[in-house]
Write a structure and sequence with these properties.
Shape: globular
Largest sheet: 5 strands, antiparallel
Low-confidence stretches: none
Helix content: 25-40%
Number of strands: 20
Strand order of the largest sheet: 2-1-20-19-18
Oligomer: single chain
Strand content: 15-25%
Radius of gyration: 24 Å
Length: 463
């Protein structure tokens, strides 16, 4: 209460709106409620809503599958496939993801696929490699994401066939302050990419942004990066993940000696050109993703927008046979409403928290956290949160306090919106559920972080 009263009088919050709600999971009693029913921009704390619902709807052991199929005729004697290879996306966000790459792997997933296909006796393909992302809507991005975000890695949209975390790396070289940077490399190779570099060397901050739209291969980078760097990476969002995946498999097959007559494409491009034909297809191989519990772990620990968006659209696909943002939102709201959560004042535009059009109350977030303490998936959910003083976005918080290595929370931050939602054990050993969000404060993001840190420490110290 002392920290809450202090924040009420804080000049940096004079024109701001902020809220806190705390419940003791042992007694279900409300320990603190300040503006608990006020709708606020949650930023990435919103991911607790998505990941918890996904665990409930799909199950922690759920796996996504990507299928390699072919049409036409495969002559196993000559090794000629008179037809096409299809990569049929199954909504897997982890395909060729850096988060699931193991050090022992000497080959990429795509390279392994190429060897598997060659092992099936394929030596020549008269058609092409076709990426099929049709289980999700073609519009990969929520309508309320801003232009300054969508060309960057954190603005990568969910495709029915996602690949390489739907991002690429631009490696810059910078000189003295004010001079123009040069580009060392772009990896993986994005074919036909037109990249305009207007990035300069600056001070100690990274304020370089990439601009560009989905399915457009024109990209422009502006801003500054740190001075005198030989290898400085900035991550951009892939224009067309399904096409990039198909092209990667084409390249890998050619390296094994398989010849391919036509250039890679996608079902979307074929339909737009009026060249898509429905054909009978046969399976060659099925690739399975890691289990959902592991995907949820990385989603919350590293706050991966792409994963959260995938889970939302896949819940729609699982229910209706087609993955859309709108239906996924409808299902998530219904899921929590049916479980007794007060969803009043809760408006979702997407499910990762990047949009400022999302609003939720701290009461709603805390109720979801409380419901999860009694859910069979609680252990998986609880362990996916960063730990104060130890991991993720909480790595530098609460050092040397009772909250260190005790408090677990999903953090959230976008411009003028910061929050934390999670769990902590108090001095009695009771598990507390809490949510705290602040919007439109008049101080730096770091200063606001420190103000909320004091509040988090005080929650842990509750007796």
């Amino acid at each position: 209460n002392k920290e809450i009263e202090s924040l009420k009088k804080d000049e940096a919050l004079k024109h701001a709106t902020w809220s806190i709600y705390i419940v003791n999971s042992k007694t279900d009693s409300v320990l603190a409620d300040y503006n608990g029913n006020v709708s606020l921009i949650p930023a990435s704390t919103l991911k607790i809503v998505t990941t918890s619902a996904a665990l409930g709807m799909l199950g922690s052991d759920y796996v996504f599958k990507t299928q390699l199929q072919y049409d036409g005729i495969l002559d196993t004697v000559s090794g000629v496939l008179k037809g096409n290879i299809y990569i049929v996306g199954g909504g897997d966000p982890t395909l060729e993801s850096a988060y699931f790459k193991e050090k022992k792997d000497t080959l990429s997933t795509i390279e392994k696929w190429a060897l598997i296909l060659k092992g099936k006796g394929i030596k020549k393909i008269t058609g092409s490699i076709i990426g099929d992302a049709d289980i999700f809507e073609d519009n990969t991005l929520p309508s309320q994401w801003i232009w300054g975000d969508i060309g960057n890695y954190f603005g990568a949209g969910a495709s029915g066939l996602s690949y390489h975390d739907n991002k690429y790396f631009v490696n810059f070289k910078s000189g003295s302050v004010g001079t123009k940077t040069t580009i060392n490399s772009i990896k993986p190779d994005v074919k036909d990419l037109q990249f305009v570099n207007d990035v300069a060397a600056g001070g100690n901050d990274d304020s370089a942004f990439i601009y560009g739209a989905p399915y457009s291969f024109y990209r422009k980078a502006e801003g500054t990066i740190q001075k005198k760097k030989k290898n400085y990476e900035v991550e951009g969002s892939l224009p067309d993940p399904a096409l990039a995946c198909a092209q990667a498999l084409e390249d890998a097959l050619k390296k094994t000696g398989v010849s391919i007559s036509e250039k890679s494409t996608t079902t979307k491009k074929l339909k737009e050109a009026g060249n898509y034909k429905i054909t009978a297809k046969k399976n060659l191989y099925v690739h399975y993703s890691p289990t959902l519990d592991k995907i949820v772990y990385w989603t919350n620990l590293k706050s991966i927008n792409l994963y959260a968006e995938h889970l939302l659209k896949f819940m729609s696909y699982k229910k209706t046979g087609f993955g859309t943002e709108a239906k996924g939102i409808e299902l998530v709201l219904a899921y929590w409403k049916d479980r007794g959560v007060d969803v009043g004042g809760f408006t979702i535009i997407e499910e990762c928290g990047l949009s400022r059009a999302n609003v939720i109350t701290t009461k709603t977030e805390t109720q979801i956290l409380l419901k999860m303490t009694k859910d069979k998936n609680f252990d998986v959910f609880y362990k996916s949160f960063p730990i104060a003083g130890k991991s993720g976005s909480l790595g530098g918080l609460c050092d040397g306090t009772f909250a260190e290595n005790n408090l677990r929370a999903k953090s959230g931050y976008i411009n003028k919106a910061r929050g934390y939602a999670g769990y902590v054990k108090n001095r009695k050993g009771d598990l507390l559920c809490f949510s705290v969000i602040a919007n439109n404060y008049e101080c730096s993001p770091t200063e606001m972080k420190r103000k909320l840190e004091r509040l988090l420490i005080a929650i842990a110290e509750t007796k």
